[in-house]
């Protein structure tokens, strides 16, 4: 079993084994880095039932790109992409279509 500590005098990571007592100073303070990038399709996370929510605004100014229905529900939400900020999301009110898009 390995134990990792931090030497406050040398500002280095120190790795030792409990069974033998062997101590070794690490060359790099970074013990382990696991960068996970996970991109999700934001539109897949929108529930189609939002078209029945009476509190959400509706618009006829943004027709559905799939079926050309004029009525759509829209809402604003934070984009998962950090540099894009807030975005408008639209959901077609045609129950057979229920297409989701953003502009």
What's a quick, concise take on this entry?
Helices cover 0% and strands 33% of the residues. The protein has 103 residues and is an all-beta fold.
**Number of strand segments:** 7
Biggest sheet descriptor: 4 strands, antiparallel
Share of residues in helices: under 10%
- The fraction of residues in strands falls at 25-35%
Rg (C-alpha, Å): 26 Å
Tell me the quaternary state: single chain
Class based on secondary structure composition and strand pairing:
mainly beta
> If helices are DSSP runs of H or I spanning 4 or more residues, what is the number of helices?
0
Unreliable spans are none
Distance between the termini: 54 Å
Mean pLDDT: 76
Which strand order spans the largest sheet, edge to edge or round the barrel? 4-5-6-7
What key attributes describe this structure?
103 residues; mainly beta; four-stranded antiparallel sheet; three-stranded antiparallel sheet; 0% helix; 33% strand; rod-shaped
Walkthrough of the structure:
With 103 residues, the chain is mainly beta. It has strands at 2-7, 12-17, 23-25, 58-59, 72-78, 86-92, 100-102. The strands form 2 sheets. Strands 4-5-6-7 form a 4-stranded antiparallel beta sheet, with no helix packed on it. Strands 1-2-3 form a 3-stranded antiparallel beta sheet, with no helix packed on it. A hairpin with a 7-residue loop joins β5 (72-78) and β6 (86-92). The radius of gyration is 26 Å and the shape is rod-shaped. The relative contact order is 0.16. The mean pLDDT is 76.
């Amino acid at each position: 079993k390995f134990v990792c500590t931090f030497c406050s005098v040398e500002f280095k990571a120190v790795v030792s084994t409990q069974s033998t007592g062997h101590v070794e100073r690490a060359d790099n303070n970074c013990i382990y880095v696991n960068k996970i990038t996970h991109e999700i399709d934001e539109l897949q996370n929108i529930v189609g039932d939002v078209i029945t929510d009476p509190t959400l605004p509706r618009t006829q100014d943004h027709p559905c790109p799939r079926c050309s229905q004029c009525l759509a529900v829209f809402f604003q939400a934070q984009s998962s992409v950090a540099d894009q900020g807030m975005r408008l999301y639209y959901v077609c009110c045609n129950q057979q279509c229920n297409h989701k898009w953003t502009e």
